[in-house]
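Annotated sample (chain length 290).
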Amino acid sequence: MIFWLNGDYKENPMAIDIADRGFLLGDGVFETLLVEGGVPAFLDAHLERLKNSLIALSINVAPLDNIGDVIAGLAEKNGLGSVIASARITITRGRSDRGLLFSASGPAAPTLLVTLMRASNNTEDSPIILKLSRSVRCEESIASQHKTTNYLDNILARNEAEAAGVDEAIMLNSRGRVACASSANIFVIKENGDVLTPPCADGALNGIVRGLLLGCVAQTGVAISEAPVDLALLQRGAPFLTNSLTGLRQARLKDDGPAPIALQVEIFNQLETWYQDRLHRSLTESAPAP
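Output written by the structure step:
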């Protein structure tokens, strides 16, 4: 696999410094983007979130204006120009001296890595099966507010779900409220058709697809809002998950909860149709001129 590291395309995987803080301490951030035909979807939104995370972690990186071209180059060099792929932008604080202090010898040069690989086949229409995880999402931690490379709680939650024979894990916060899934935001459609998603203050990440849906009320007429969600509400309603690679996916709790009623199915299909149109426009508007 050819990747892009600190300004150059490379192929040797033994390229990360053994003193890199991202490797040693999880001191970094990342973004995962859907790529189709070498074109990343919602690139500006991803870069804006990445920039905000870098500011929050005090990691100073030069402007990332060329990332779209880098991803297009990776698609060409890896033979992924005609398939749906997943790009990952990873930025760490870079190399530093041993210990927790950023660097005793002055600011480190951050490590910037971009990879691209074929995306998993996500054409399955059956609902994602959810299970409550023992792993807790700490809503007060900066790690819940940004996509940091320290993903241990999410890793444990996802593997707990796998061991239980289900698809995804529901993560509660320290107050017992629903925060998110291990790799997705959670929404729930109530019986009256209103749609809720946990607020970021409850540990939900400000997901890209989540943000799009929160902003689509005027176009769809669907009442979508942030509000605390408890497990009982999730059990009574019709949950669905969102992330940048899979878009919107219907979900249900393992051995629990009623089947969605017609209105809830209609609302989900309406939002899914709106999102697919918005995704298509993003890819079309970002595609290079022929």
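Annotation: Residues 262-286 form the longest helix (25 residues).
Annotation: The helical segments are 21-25, 43-56, 67-77, 152-163, 208-214, 217-220, 231-236, 262-286.
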